[in-house]
Specification:
About 55% of the residues lie in helices and about 10% in strands. By secondary structure, it is an alpha+beta fold. The chain has two domains: about 80 residues, Glutaredoxin (3-Layer(aba) Sandwich); about 120 residues, Up-down Bundle (Glutathione S-transferase Yfyf (Class Pi), Chain A, domain 2). A four-stranded mixed beta sheet has the order 2-1-3-4, with helices on one face. Helix 1 links the parallel strand 1 and strand 2. The two termini are about 30 Å apart. Bound molecules: glutathione.
Length: about 210
């Protein structure tokens, strides 16, 4: 039994909820923390997660923050090895795409989301949005090329936690009111993810 602190509309929380649903892990409690819900900006919450962000994962004495670290732990502990391969070469490719999600692919899509959906005053202006759209398009074009090459999923023919990390941002890209480049492999991938009930129930259900 573990606890996930985090609102169900957060992108980084949804990654974790999707993985739980995908592996049929229901023995957990989720607490509504984050923007619009219980505040993360309290001394109690900061003791769990000094970044004052969601998600935070607690299992007994173990506390993990950073959504991709939570994905790795859950997959290694509760899933079969397809989701997070034990073969080091295969695992490195999964890790590579997870790192790319955090450091690169996320930036433009996050800025577009804050500008167009959250309407954060710090994320407005034509120049800001144009730059964000360019960054997002570059990242999604790179992912489209990878998917055209690899098959059904980001790291090959099987779903892995790299898909859990990236799928929410692909969903967000297709949900944002922006002009999108024609990226057929990416569109087919999104359609493929949408056939999964676990993805529908967690990622899609959480909104854009
Ligand atoms: N790198 C962190 C980022 C966490 C993050 O930025 N979380 C956002 C939600 S997606 C957050 O906590 N926002 C403030 C809030 O909801 O109060 C992770 O992957 O867990």
């Amino acid at each position: 039994m573990f606890t996930i602190y985090g609102r169900p509309n957060s992108s980084n929380v949804r990654k974790v909820l999707w993985l739980c649903a995908e592996i049929g892990q229901t023995d957990y409690k989720r607490l509504d923390y984050g923007r619009g819900f219980e505040s993360c900006d309290t001394p109690e919450y900061a003791k769990l997660n000094p970044n004052k962000l969601v998600p935070t994962f607690v299992e007994g004495d173990l506390v993990i923050w950073e959504s991709n670290a939570i994905l790795r732990y859950l997959a290694a502990k509760y899933a079969d090895e397809t989701l997070y391969p034990t073969d080091l070469a295969k695992r490195a490719v999964v890790d590579q795409w997870m790192e790319w999600q955090t450091t690169t692919s996320n930036i433009g899509i996050r800025d577009l989301f804050f500008g167009l959906i959250v309407k954060d005053p710090s994320a407005t202006g034509d120049d800001f949005l144009a730059k964000a759209r360019t960054q997002a398009t570059q990242a999604m074009t790179l992912l489209d090329a990878q998917l055209a090459d690899t098959g059904a999923f980001v790291a090959g023919n099987d779903l892995t936690i790299a898909d859990c990390a990236l799928g929410i941002f692909v969903h967000r890209w297709f949900s944002l009111p922006v002009e999108r480049a024609d990226l057929p492999a990416l569109a087919a991938y999104y359609d493929r993810l949408k056939t999964r009930q676990a993805f529908e129930d967690t990622v899609i259900a959480g909104g854009p």
